[in-house]
Protein backbone atom coordinates (compact mmCIF):
# COMPACT_ATOMS: atom_id res chain seq x y z
CA UNK A 1 0.00 0.00 0.00
CA UNK A 2 2.94 2.35 0.62
CA UNK A 3 3.43 2.90 -3.14
CA UNK A 4 -0.06 4.36 -3.60
CA UNK A 5 0.15 8.14 -3.89
CA UNK A 6 -1.99 9.88 -1.23
CA UNK A 7 -4.85 12.07 -2.42
CA UNK A 8 -6.05 15.27 -0.72
CA UNK A 9 -9.75 15.09 0.14
CA UNK A 10 -11.32 18.44 -0.75
CA UNK A 11 -14.44 19.26 1.33
CA UNK A 12 -16.30 20.73 -1.67
CA UNK A 13 -19.97 20.58 -2.68
CA UNK A 14 -19.54 17.14 -4.24
CA UNK A 15 -18.05 15.78 -1.02
CA UNK A 16 -20.86 17.36 1.03
CA UNK A 17 -23.52 15.73 -1.13
CA UNK A 18 -21.76 12.38 -0.68
CA UNK A 19 -21.52 12.90 3.09
CA UNK A 20 -25.17 13.93 3.42
CA UNK A 21 -26.39 10.93 1.42
CA UNK A 22 -24.13 8.23 2.88
CA UNK A 23 -23.91 9.36 6.52
CA UNK A 24 -26.20 12.25 7.50
CA UNK A 25 -24.63 14.49 10.14
CA UNK A 26 -25.69 13.86 13.73
CA UNK A 27 -25.51 16.38 16.54
CA UNK A 28 -22.85 15.71 19.16
CA UNK A 29 -23.27 16.66 22.83
CA UNK A 30 -21.85 20.18 23.18
CA UNK A 31 -20.13 19.80 19.84
CA UNK A 32 -20.51 20.05 16.07
CA UNK A 33 -22.71 17.81 13.95
CA UNK A 34 -20.52 15.07 12.45
CA UNK A 35 -20.93 12.64 9.57
CA UNK A 36 -20.59 9.01 10.66
CA UNK A 37 -22.14 5.79 9.45
CA UNK A 38 -23.62 3.45 12.07
CA UNK A 39 -20.44 1.34 11.91
CA UNK A 40 -18.20 4.39 12.24
CA UNK A 41 -20.27 5.68 15.14
CA UNK A 42 -19.81 2.39 16.96
CA UNK A 43 -16.02 2.74 16.71
CA UNK A 44 -15.56 6.51 16.82
CA UNK A 45 -14.68 8.47 19.94
CA UNK A 46 -17.67 10.58 21.09
CA UNK A 47 -16.98 14.30 20.86
CA UNK A 48 -17.33 14.83 24.62
CA UNK A 49 -14.75 12.11 25.30
CA UNK A 50 -12.42 13.39 22.58
CA UNK A 51 -12.51 16.90 24.03
CA UNK A 52 -11.99 15.71 27.62
CA UNK A 53 -8.90 13.80 26.54
CA UNK A 54 -7.59 16.68 24.43
CA UNK A 55 -8.03 19.08 27.35
CA UNK A 56 -5.46 17.10 29.32
CA UNK A 57 -2.83 18.65 27.03
CA UNK A 58 -3.65 22.26 27.91
CA UNK A 59 -0.85 22.45 30.46
CA UNK A 60 1.59 20.38 28.39
CA UNK A 61 4.50 21.92 26.53
CA UNK A 62 3.54 20.70 23.09
CA UNK A 63 5.89 22.20 20.47
CA UNK A 64 4.67 24.28 17.56
CA UNK A 65 3.52 22.44 14.47
CA UNK A 66 0.63 20.36 13.15
CA UNK A 67 -1.36 17.55 14.76
CA UNK A 68 -0.92 14.29 12.84
CA UNK A 69 -3.33 11.36 12.88
CA UNK A 70 -2.25 8.71 10.33
CA UNK A 71 -5.35 6.54 10.86
CA UNK A 72 -7.92 9.23 11.59
CA UNK A 73 -11.22 7.47 10.91
CA UNK A 74 -14.01 10.03 11.35
CA UNK A 75 -11.39 12.62 12.46
CA UNK A 76 -13.24 13.28 15.73
CA UNK A 77 -10.22 12.95 18.01
CA UNK A 78 -8.01 14.81 15.54
CA UNK A 79 -10.47 17.71 15.42
CA UNK A 80 -10.70 17.84 19.22
CA UNK A 81 -6.90 18.02 19.51
CA UNK A 82 -6.77 20.77 16.89
CA UNK A 83 -9.50 22.69 18.74
CA UNK A 84 -7.83 22.53 22.16
CA UNK A 85 -4.27 23.16 20.95
CA UNK A 86 -5.34 25.56 18.17
CA UNK A 87 -3.07 23.83 15.65
CA UNK A 88 -3.77 22.63 12.09
CA UNK A 89 -4.45 18.94 11.63
CA UNK A 90 -3.28 16.39 9.09
CA UNK A 91 -5.33 13.20 8.99
CA UNK A 92 -4.79 10.13 6.84
CA UNK A 93 -7.49 7.54 6.20
CA UNK A 94 -7.07 4.32 4.25
CA UNK A 95 -10.77 3.85 3.46
CA UNK A 96 -11.91 5.72 0.37
CA UNK A 97 -15.48 5.71 1.73
CA UNK A 98 -14.49 7.24 5.08
CA UNK A 99 -11.84 9.78 4.01
CA UNK A 100 -14.34 12.24 2.42
CA UNK A 101 -16.47 12.13 5.59
CA UNK A 102 -13.38 12.87 7.69
CA UNK A 103 -12.59 15.89 5.48
CA UNK A 104 -16.10 17.31 5.91
CA UNK A 105 -15.99 16.62 9.66
CA UNK A 106 -12.67 18.43 10.08
CA UNK A 107 -14.05 21.42 8.18
CA UNK A 108 -17.22 21.40 10.30
CA UNK A 109 -15.22 21.29 13.54
CA UNK A 110 -13.00 24.20 12.52
CA UNK A 111 -16.08 26.28 11.66
CA UNK A 112 -17.73 25.29 14.95
CA UNK A 113 -14.58 26.22 16.92
CA UNK A 114 -14.31 29.52 14.98
CA UNK A 115 -10.55 29.09 14.77
CA UNK A 116 -8.14 29.53 11.88
CA UNK A 117 -6.55 26.09 12.31
CA UNK A 118 -8.89 24.76 9.66
CA UNK A 119 -7.20 26.79 6.92
CA UNK A 120 -4.13 24.53 6.84
CA UNK A 121 -5.85 21.32 7.93
CA UNK A 122 -6.17 18.48 5.46
CA UNK A 123 -7.42 14.90 5.21
CA UNK A 124 -5.54 12.60 2.83
CA UNK A 125 -6.79 9.34 1.43
CA UNK A 126 -3.88 6.92 1.57
CA UNK A 127 -1.65 4.64 3.60
CA UNK A 128 -0.78 6.15 6.97
CA UNK A 129 2.61 4.46 7.06
CA UNK A 130 3.83 6.23 3.88
CA UNK A 131 5.23 9.11 5.89
CA UNK A 132 7.45 10.78 3.32
CA UNK A 133 4.83 10.68 0.55
CA UNK A 134 2.11 11.97 2.88
CA UNK A 135 4.17 14.91 4.11
CA UNK A 136 5.29 15.78 0.59
CA UNK A 137 1.69 15.84 -0.66
CA UNK A 138 0.53 17.88 2.33
CA UNK A 139 3.34 20.42 2.08
CA UNK A 140 2.76 20.91 -1.63
CA UNK A 141 -0.95 21.39 -1.08
CA UNK A 142 -0.66 24.09 1.60
CA UNK A 143 2.51 25.70 0.26
CA UNK A 144 4.39 25.44 3.56
CA UNK A 145 6.49 22.93 5.50
CA UNK A 146 5.34 22.92 9.13
CA UNK A 147 6.78 20.39 11.57
CA UNK A 148 4.76 17.78 13.47
CA UNK A 149 3.84 18.85 17.00
CA UNK A 150 1.90 15.77 18.09
CA UNK A 151 1.15 12.35 16.61
CA UNK A 152 -2.06 10.60 17.64
CA UNK A 153 -2.89 7.09 16.48
CA UNK A 154 -5.82 4.80 17.20
CA UNK A 155 -5.07 1.65 15.17
CA UNK A 156 -7.83 -0.63 13.99
CA UNK A 157 -8.09 -3.94 15.84
CA UNK A 158 -10.40 -6.97 15.99
CA UNK A 159 -13.62 -5.84 17.64
CA UNK A 160 -15.02 -9.27 18.50
CA UNK A 161 -11.87 -10.71 20.10
CA UNK A 162 -11.35 -10.87 23.85
CA UNK A 163 -7.66 -10.38 23.15
CA UNK A 164 -5.50 -9.84 20.11
CA UNK A 165 -1.85 -9.72 19.14
CA UNK A 166 0.00 -6.51 18.37
CA UNK A 167 0.41 -7.73 14.78
CA UNK A 168 -3.39 -7.62 14.36
CA UNK A 169 -3.46 -3.86 14.91
CA UNK A 170 -3.71 -1.91 11.64
CA UNK A 171 -1.55 -0.09 10.90
CA UNK A 172 1.03 -1.95 12.95
CA UNK A 173 2.55 0.32 15.57
CA UNK A 174 6.14 -0.75 14.98
CA UNK A 175 5.91 -0.10 11.23
CA UNK A 176 4.02 3.18 11.61
CA UNK A 177 6.24 4.69 14.31
CA UNK A 178 9.41 3.68 12.46
CA UNK A 179 8.04 5.32 9.31
CA UNK A 180 7.29 8.63 11.04
CA UNK A 181 10.30 8.72 13.38
CA UNK A 182 12.56 10.63 10.90
CA UNK A 183 9.97 13.43 10.79
CA UNK A 184 9.46 13.72 14.55
CA UNK A 185 11.63 15.35 17.21
CA UNK A 186 14.07 13.45 19.41
CA UNK A 187 11.46 13.49 22.19
CA UNK A 188 8.17 13.49 20.30
CA UNK A 189 4.71 14.11 21.71
CA UNK A 190 2.70 10.96 21.02
CA UNK A 191 -0.67 9.55 22.07
CA UNK A 192 -1.17 5.87 21.28
CA UNK A 193 -4.77 4.69 21.73
CA UNK A 194 -4.88 0.97 22.45
CA UNK A 195 -7.28 -1.78 23.41
CA UNK A 196 -8.19 -1.86 27.13
CA UNK A 197 -7.83 -5.64 26.82
CA UNK A 198 -4.07 -5.49 26.34
CA UNK A 199 -2.14 -7.67 28.77
CA UNK A 200 0.73 -6.37 30.90
CA UNK A 201 3.11 -8.26 28.60
CA UNK A 202 1.68 -6.52 25.53
CA UNK A 203 1.96 -3.14 27.21
CA UNK A 204 5.62 -3.83 27.88
CA UNK A 205 6.06 -4.84 24.24
CA UNK A 206 4.64 -1.48 23.15
CA UNK A 207 6.99 0.32 25.54
CA UNK A 208 9.87 -1.63 23.98
CA UNK A 209 8.81 -0.48 20.49
CA UNK A 210 8.82 3.16 21.61
CA UNK A 211 12.12 2.82 23.50
CA UNK A 212 13.82 1.12 20.55
CA UNK A 213 13.18 4.27 18.49
CA UNK A 214 13.43 7.12 21.01
CA UNK A 215 15.26 5.66 23.97
CA UNK A 216 14.26 6.48 27.55
CA UNK A 217 11.52 8.95 26.66
CA UNK A 218 8.93 9.88 29.31
CA UNK A 219 5.80 7.70 29.22
CA UNK A 220 2.43 7.68 31.00
CA UNK A 221 -0.09 4.88 30.74
CA UNK A 222 -3.64 6.20 31.00
CA UNK A 223 -6.74 4.20 31.82
CA UNK A 224 -10.08 5.94 31.25
CA UNK A 225 -13.41 4.98 32.76
CA UNK A 226 -16.88 6.45 32.43
CA UNK A 227 -18.13 4.27 35.25
CA UNK A 228 -20.23 1.18 34.63
CA UNK A 229 -17.48 -0.89 36.26
CA UNK A 230 -15.15 -1.07 33.27
CA UNK A 231 -12.12 0.47 31.59
CA UNK A 232 -13.30 2.17 28.39
CA UNK A 233 -9.92 3.21 26.99
CA UNK A 234 -6.24 2.54 27.44
CA UNK A 235 -3.60 4.83 25.97
CA UNK A 236 0.11 5.57 26.18
CA UNK A 237 1.07 9.25 26.36
CA UNK A 238 4.69 9.95 25.41
CA UNK A 239 7.19 12.80 25.62
CA UNK A 240 5.67 16.27 26.20
CA UNK A 241 2.21 14.64 26.20
CA UNK A 242 3.10 12.46 29.21
CA UNK A 243 2.28 13.21 32.85
CA UNK A 244 4.85 13.55 35.62
CA UNK A 245 3.73 10.12 36.89
CA UNK A 246 4.00 6.84 34.92
CA UNK A 247 0.34 5.89 35.44
CA UNK A 248 -2.90 7.88 35.32
CA UNK A 249 -6.54 6.95 35.79
CA UNK A 250 -9.10 9.29 34.23
CA UNK A 251 -12.71 9.27 35.44
CA UNK A 252 -15.10 11.06 33.09
CA UNK A 253 -18.56 11.72 34.50
CA UNK A 254 -21.79 11.98 32.51
CA UNK A 255 -21.67 15.75 32.94
CA UNK A 256 -18.15 15.95 31.51
CA UNK A 257 -16.28 16.48 34.79
CA UNK A 258 -12.86 14.83 34.95
CA UNK A 259 -10.99 13.37 37.91
CA UNK A 260 -7.38 12.29 37.49
CA UNK A 261 -5.63 9.85 39.81
CA UNK A 262 -1.90 9.52 39.20
CA UNK A 263 0.84 7.39 40.69
CA UNK A 264 2.91 4.27 40.32
CA UNK A 265 1.32 0.87 39.76
CA UNK A 266 1.23 -1.29 42.87
CA UNK A 267 -0.23 -4.71 43.54
CA UNK A 268 -3.02 -4.52 46.12
CA UNK A 269 -3.35 -7.43 48.54
CA UNK A 270 -6.55 -8.86 49.94
CA UNK A 271 -6.45 -9.49 53.68
CA UNK A 272 -8.55 -11.85 55.77
CA UNK A 273 -10.61 -9.71 58.13
CA UNK A 274 -14.01 -10.18 59.71
CA UNK A 275 -16.14 -7.11 59.10
CA UNK A 276 -17.43 -5.66 62.36
CA UNK A 277 -20.27 -3.34 63.30
CA UNK A 278 -19.02 0.23 63.38
CA UNK A 279 -16.46 -0.21 60.61
CA UNK A 280 -16.88 1.57 57.31
CA UNK A 281 -17.31 -0.43 54.11
CA UNK A 282 -16.71 0.97 50.63
CA UNK A 283 -17.30 -0.62 47.24
CA UNK A 284 -15.04 1.03 44.67
CA UNK A 285 -14.91 1.24 40.89
CA UNK A 286 -12.97 -1.79 39.58
CA UNK A 287 -10.94 0.58 37.39
CA UNK A 288 -8.82 1.27 40.48
CA UNK A 289 -7.72 -2.35 40.54
CA UNK A 290 -7.41 -2.67 36.75
CA UNK A 291 -5.11 0.35 36.56
CA UNK A 292 -2.98 -0.71 39.52
CA UNK A 293 -3.72 2.61 41.26
CA UNK A 294 -5.88 1.26 44.08
CA UNK A 295 -3.12 1.96 46.60
CA UNK A 296 -2.69 5.52 45.33
CA UNK A 297 -6.43 6.00 45.89
CA UNK A 298 -6.26 4.34 49.31
CA UNK A 299 -3.59 6.78 50.50
CA UNK A 300 -5.95 9.66 49.73
CA UNK A 301 -9.11 7.92 50.98
CA UNK A 302 -7.80 7.00 54.43
CA UNK A 303 -5.20 9.24 56.02
CA UNK A 304 -4.91 7.43 59.35
CA UNK A 305 -6.11 4.29 61.08
CA UNK A 306 -6.96 0.77 60.00
CA UNK A 307 -7.94 -0.05 56.43
CA UNK A 308 -7.95 -3.25 54.39
CA UNK A 309 -9.08 -4.73 51.08
CA UNK A 310 -11.45 -7.65 51.62
CA UNK A 311 -12.22 -8.18 47.93
CA UNK A 312 -10.21 -7.24 44.85
CA UNK A 313 -11.98 -9.23 42.12
CA UNK A 314 -15.08 -8.81 40.01
CA UNK A 315 -17.21 -5.71 39.67
CA UNK A 316 -17.27 -4.79 43.36
CA UNK A 317 -13.82 -4.44 44.93
CA UNK A 318 -14.48 -3.86 48.63
CA UNK A 319 -12.56 -1.92 51.22
CA UNK A 320 -13.06 -1.55 54.99
CA UNK A 321 -11.72 1.13 57.28
CA UNK A 322 -12.01 2.18 60.89
CA UNK A 323 -12.97 5.73 59.92
CA UNK A 324 -15.15 7.14 57.12
CA UNK A 325 -13.29 7.65 53.85
CA UNK A 326 -12.36 11.16 52.77
CA UNK A 327 -15.02 13.22 51.01
CA UNK A 328 -12.37 14.51 48.62
CA UNK A 329 -13.79 14.48 45.10
CA UNK A 330 -10.78 12.46 43.92
CA UNK A 331 -11.89 9.75 46.35
CA UNK A 332 -15.66 9.87 45.87
CA UNK A 333 -15.50 9.80 42.06
CA UNK A 334 -14.12 6.26 42.24
CA UNK A 335 -16.65 5.00 44.80
CA UNK A 336 -19.74 2.95 43.96
CA UNK A 337 -21.18 3.11 47.47
CA UNK A 338 -19.93 3.57 51.02
CA UNK A 339 -21.38 3.40 54.50
CA UNK A 340 -21.11 2.32 58.12
CA UNK A 341 -21.77 -1.31 59.07
CA UNK A 342 -24.80 -1.49 61.37
CA UNK A 343 -25.50 -5.23 61.37
CA UNK A 344 -24.13 -8.56 60.14
CA UNK A 345 -25.98 -11.57 58.74
CA UNK A 346 -25.00 -15.11 57.82
CA UNK A 347 -27.58 -15.46 55.05
CA UNK A 348 -29.73 -13.34 52.74
CA UNK A 349 -32.69 -15.24 51.32
CA UNK A 350 -36.46 -15.07 51.06
CA UNK A 351 -36.64 -16.96 54.35
CA UNK A 352 -34.48 -14.47 56.27
CA UNK A 353 -35.92 -11.23 54.89
CA UNK A 354 -38.13 -10.56 57.89
CA UNK A 355 -35.21 -10.81 60.31
CA UNK A 356 -33.03 -8.62 58.08
CA UNK A 357 -35.75 -5.96 57.90
CA UNK A 358 -36.07 -5.90 61.68
CA UNK A 359 -32.31 -5.42 62.05
CA UNK A 360 -32.34 -2.62 59.48
CA UNK A 361 -35.28 -0.89 61.12
CA UNK A 362 -33.62 -1.12 64.53
CA UNK A 363 -30.65 0.71 63.02
CA UNK A 364 -32.94 3.47 61.73
CA UNK A 365 -32.85 2.47 58.06
CA UNK A 366 -35.90 3.09 55.88
CA UNK A 367 -34.75 1.12 52.81
CA UNK A 368 -32.29 -1.58 51.78
CA UNK A 369 -30.70 -2.16 48.40
CA UNK A 370 -28.92 -5.31 47.31
CA UNK A 371 -25.34 -4.50 46.30
CA UNK A 372 -23.76 -7.85 45.52
CA UNK A 373 -23.68 -10.38 42.68
CA UNK A 374 -26.96 -12.28 42.29
CA UNK A 375 -28.63 -14.37 39.62
CA UNK A 376 -30.37 -11.82 37.31
CA UNK A 377 -33.60 -13.81 37.58
CA UNK A 378 -33.56 -13.74 41.37
CA UNK A 379 -32.25 -10.24 42.07
CA UNK A 380 -35.40 -8.21 41.20
CA UNK A 381 -37.67 -10.65 43.05
CA UNK A 382 -35.52 -10.58 46.18
CA UNK A 383 -35.24 -6.78 46.02
CA UNK A 384 -39.02 -6.43 45.71
CA UNK A 385 -39.51 -8.74 48.68
CA UNK A 386 -37.09 -6.66 50.80
CA UNK A 387 -38.91 -3.46 49.77
CA UNK A 388 -42.22 -4.94 50.95
CA UNK A 389 -40.75 -5.94 54.30
CA UNK A 390 -39.27 -2.49 54.88
CA UNK A 391 -42.61 -0.80 54.11
CA UNK A 392 -44.13 -2.52 57.14
CA UNK A 393 -42.33 -0.05 59.39
CA UNK A 394 -43.27 3.56 60.04
CA UNK A 395 -40.09 5.29 58.87
CA UNK A 396 -40.49 7.69 55.96
CA UNK A 397 -39.25 6.04 52.73
CA UNK A 398 -35.85 7.16 51.37
CA UNK A 399 -35.00 9.13 54.52
CA UNK A 400 -32.21 6.86 55.74
CA UNK A 401 -31.04 4.51 53.02
CA UNK A 402 -29.04 1.36 53.54
CA UNK A 403 -27.58 -1.48 51.54
CA UNK A 404 -26.69 -5.14 51.93
CA UNK A 405 -23.48 -6.54 50.52
CA UNK A 406 -21.52 -9.76 50.72
CA UNK A 407 -18.23 -10.13 52.56
CA UNK A 408 -15.88 -13.07 52.81
CA UNK A 409 -17.62 -14.58 55.82
CA UNK A 410 -21.24 -13.51 55.33
CA UNK A 411 -23.25 -10.36 54.70
CA UNK A 412 -23.46 -6.90 56.22
CA UNK A 413 -26.13 -4.25 56.43
CA UNK A 414 -24.75 -0.73 56.05
CA UNK A 415 -26.01 2.76 56.56
CA UNK A 416 -25.35 4.54 53.26
CA UNK A 417 -23.19 7.64 53.73
Would you kindly provide a brief summary of this structure?
The chain has 417 residues and is of the alpha/beta class. It contains 13 helices and 19 strands.
Topology:
Elements: E1 7-9, H1 13-22, E2 25-26, E3 34-35, H2 38-43, H3 47-55, E4 66-69, H4 76-85, E5 89-93, H5 99-113, E6 122-125, H6 131-142, E7 148-153, H7 173-180, E8 190-194, H8 200-214, E9 219-225, E10 233-238, E11 247-252, E12 258-263, E13 280-284, H9 287-291, H10 294-301, E14 307-311, E15 318-321, H11 329-332, E16 335-345, H12 353-362, E17 367-370, H13 379-390, E18 401-407, E19 410-416
Parallel strand pairs: 4-5, 4-7, 5-6, 7-8, 9-11, 17-18
Antiparallel strand pairs: 1-6, 2-3, 8-10, 9-10, 11-12, 13-15, 13-16, 14-15, 16-19, 18-19
Verbal overview:
The protein is an alpha/beta fold. The protein folds into two domains: 7-263, 3-Layer(aba) Sandwich (Rossmann fold); 280-416, VC0802-like, CATH 3.30.2130. Helix content is 30%, strand content 24%. It is built from 13 helices and 19 strands. The strands form three sheets. Strands 1-6-5-4-7-8-10-9-11-12 form a ten-stranded mixed sheet. Strand 11 (247-252) and strand 12 (258-263) form a beta hairpin. Helix 1 crosses helix 5 (99-113). It is elongated. It starts with 6 loop residues before the first strand and ends with a strand. The mean pLDDT is 92.
Amino acid sequence: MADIKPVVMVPDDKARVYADSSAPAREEIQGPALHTTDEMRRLATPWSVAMARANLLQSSEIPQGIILDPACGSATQLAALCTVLNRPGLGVELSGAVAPLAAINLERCAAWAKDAWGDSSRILWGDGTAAESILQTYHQNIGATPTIALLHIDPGRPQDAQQHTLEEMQPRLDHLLASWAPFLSREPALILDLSPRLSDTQRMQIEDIVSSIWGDVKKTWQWMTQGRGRIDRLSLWIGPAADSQPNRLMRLSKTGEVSLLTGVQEVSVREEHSVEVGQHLTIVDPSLVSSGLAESWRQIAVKDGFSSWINLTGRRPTFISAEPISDDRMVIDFVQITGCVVSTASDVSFETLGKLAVSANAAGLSSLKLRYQLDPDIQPKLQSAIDREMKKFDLEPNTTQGFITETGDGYVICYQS
